[in-house]
Amino acid sequence: MVRYARYPLTMLLAASAVVMLAITLLAPRIPLPARPYAIPHHNAAVVEKVMVSRQSAEAAGTLQIARRASLDVIVANVDAAIGRASSIARRAGGDVFSLQAENDASANASADMRLRVPAAAFDASLLALAKLGTVKERTVDADDLTSNITDSAARLRNLQHTEEDILSIMNRSGSVSQILEAENQLSQVRERIEVLESQLKEMRGRVAYATIGLHFEPEAVRAAPDRSASARLRNATAAAVHALGNVTIGLVSTVIWCAVFVPYLLLVAAVLYAVRLLLRKRYAVRR
User: Fold this and answer.
1) I need a surface site. Which of 23, 143, 257, 286 has the fewest CB within 10 A?
2) Where are the domains of the chain?
């Protein structure tokens, strides 16, 4: 009985060993089960890179600063000021990005401009623009984009590594569902990469080129008073005509008021006359 009981156990152990050996030999050729690809996250590593990059930038004096300013200038000639401001921007390596001018022959003519100049020429350009006339109002401010640019660049590198990992997985043999899932993940990653690249381009452009807003107003022109004899006669004549008109208007107004109130005056007079007659009759009867 013992012999027959041990024989099946020996056969079972032998069969198990053969199955394990087969699995070991054939495992590399068996495709992986279909499962969604999880994008690897390295939050701690990314944060550490951002902090190190920020500290390195501050230590090296390469802070990413976006500068902008606005000037409200009173000028003698608005058109001439527009031309000189455009020349200042182009000489500095920038250009005019917007212009809105009111071409009015009166003293209400004005213009609004927006210039972009290299950050290195910001101070010199601002000083040259202020000399175009009398500065009525000046505003200068800046945004520190160092953290945003460093963080976005680190996240962009992380997404690019993820894109490479997905492409390497797609090159392996696998089922159709695996390939479709990988393509879906790849599309999402590439969309996020494009968004980050656009944001980085916009922020770096703001750092590389400063923005200056300009508002031009003309000087108030006052005509000098005319002291000649003919001018005095004209002024006297105009004053006399004005006074005559006022007197005429006053007389006409009086006549109109009287004409309007005459019926009421006649009615009051009639009532008074009737009362007088009545009193006379009573007095005559008593006598």
Assistant:
1) 286
2) 59-145
